[in-house]
Amino acid sequence: MASSDSLLSAAHPQAALSAANPFSLEGKLALVTGGGTGIGLEIARCLSVAGATVVITGRREAVLQEAVADLGPSVHYLTNDVGDLAQLEELVAHIETTFGPLDILVNNAGINMKKPALEVTDEDFSRILHTNLNAVFALTRACARRMVARKSGVILMISSMAAYYGIDRVVAYAASKSAVEGMVKVLASEFSKDNVRINAIAPGFIETEMSRTAMNSDPERRDRAMRRTPMGRFGQPQDIGHAAVFLASDAARYVTGASLPVDGGNSIGF
Question: What residue stretches are annotated with the Ketoreductase domain (predicted)?
Answer without folding.
Answer: 28-204
